[in-house]
Amino acid sequence: MSASKLSLMVDTNPLLGTWKLKAYVVTTAAGERATPYGENPTGYLSYSADGRMQVIATAKGRIAPASAAPSENERVALYDTMFAYAGTYSVKADKVIHHVDISWNETWTGTDQIRLFEVSGNTLTVTTRITDPANGMETHYAVVWEKIASTC
């Protein structure tokens, strides 16, 4: 990436930096609200000037396995209480497209995950509407992030 293109991206990209997860809310078309990662999930989302992104998040208060070799049930519980992926990204108006290179859920690897976003002050809200494969219902996902101040 040329220095001038990198400079323009840094000056105009509101997503740049690291964001701390504040809320993850799922609402069905019927109005049912859920917080699958709890009321206080933990996680980070980073967008870099070189066009890469990465995200990892977990439910607050996950149970540690009883030993270094988790049981099948413990592995399932750990998998079900996290998400993580990384790749490149592109921004178009109020959309960010995550071009997934690697993911905790292999069905996402190699896909484009399209999200709407809004930045208000130090808050980033990322939303998407999809048909939930588990129940066939239209579902709205809203993930709220807070900008972390740079330490540099």
Describe the structure.
With 152 residues, the protein is mainly beta. It has a single domain (3-147), classed as Lipocalin (Beta Barrel), CATH 2.40.128. Helix content is 12%, strand content 49%. It contains 2 helices and 9 strands; from the N terminus they run H-E-E-E-E-H-E-E-E-E-E.
List the helices and strands and how they pair.
Layout: H1 3-12, E1 17-28, E2 33-34, E3 42-47, E4 52-58, H2 72-80, E5 82-92, E6 95-103, E7 112-120, E8 123-131, E9 138-147
Antiparallel strand pairs: 1-2, 1-3, 1-9, 3-4, 4-5, 5-6, 6-7, 7-8, 8-9
What is shown here, in short?
By secondary structure, the chain is mainly beta. The chain is built from two helices and nine strands. It has one domain: Lipocalin (Beta Barrel).
